[in-house]
Amino acid sequence: MMRLAIQLVSLIVLLAGAATLFAQLSETIESQSIATPATTSGQSPALIVRQKLGEFQPPLPSAFPQTLSRPAFFDGRAFPTSKPKQTQLTLPKPPTEVAVPTKPTLPIDKIKLLGLHVELDVQRALLEITPGSAAWRTVGEKIDAWAIISIDVGGVTLKAGSQTGKLELYRSLGR
After folding, report:
1. Which residues of 124-143 are buried (b: 16+ CB within 10 A; e: fewer)?
2. What are 134-162's pLDDT values in tens digits?
3. 153 contacts 118 by C-beta, under 8 angstroms
């Protein structure tokens, strides 16, 4: 209850300050001479502008050749349908078996997985072999003797001969 009373008093003080500021600003504006458009002769500002600039003349339609060549309204134009067109998504086919050399010279722990981009039709992994050499790789590409055989949200699976290794983006904490 005390908090509400403090907030109410603060609001009243704030409103009183705003009212005082508004009154001072109004007096300042009234005391200054504000220049108005030359309406001393009783003419409206619109009439004065027309006299100085002349009547507005819209450009001829020939000034807009794109509009004339592609009109927005024509006889064959149809109303939009209320239902959007249904498109059937086709999932990409998994890659065929990749030919893999037998003996890798680069240990798998020297390859760092920095990021993944996995969508329906796109699977890419950001891999770094040496510092500063990060590049986006896709399934089927080779790094030394390692071939990328799959990319999913968990990580990247590499294969070299009979060896298979998985690079995970987030290592499990043993839970």
Report:
1. bbbbeeeeeeeeebebeeeb
2. 999 999 999 888 999 999 988 999 998 88
3. yes
Residue burial 62-76, b: 16+ Cβ < 10 Å; e: rest: eeeeeeeeeeeeeee
Q: Which amino acid is at 33?
A: S
Which whole-number Å values give the CA distances from 89 to 71, 150, 151, in the listed order?
Answer: 34, 21, 20
Output Rg (C-alpha) for the chain, integer angstroms: 37
| pTM over the 0.90 mark | no
Q: Do the beta carbons of residue 169 and residue 116 sit within 8 Å?
A: yes
pLDDT in tens, 87-116: 777 777 776 666 555 677 788 888 999 999
Average pLDDT over residues 34-61: 69
